[in-house]
């Protein structure tokens, strides 16, 4: 049950689902490769859309993309891709669906090079979450030099839909960056 009288970041008040995501996931450090891939896939599909749109379809994405099993996704056939493009439960953007396969393949390549995707991605913040101290939502940036650098490196490695804004949102979602505003109950929890 969501406690609605808590002070939260202003972006999450439009639905119980949004508040639950804020309270239980957003900004919590993630080190598990499967969960990191889930957020990478969801964030790439979110590009140009609202996050609540993706949250509302998250279970559909889970089912459509084999529980975010990047090893399976990396092997998707054209038939499977066509099936996904017909699935009204997800975002049926052809370029994004194809990028999910490409990104899964590149994700595995990074694992082979670094031992895990977690080792690779967390090295950008010296394996320690960056604690920003925004007083309000206006002080939370959409991009930073760090998200620019991660985006550039991922693109160099062949990833798609990983622009700086997407990567900043990914860092926030996976707890690499703590952008809870100063009066939010999750700020220091």
From TrEMBL:
It comes from the Bacteria. InterPro entries: Adenine_glyco, DNA-3mA_glycosylase, DNA_glycosylase, Tag. PANTHER family: DNA-3-METHYLADENINE GLYCOSYLASE 1, DNA-3-METHYLADENINE GLYCOSYLASE I. This is DNA-3-methyladenine glycosylase I. It comes from Flavobacterium tiangeerense.
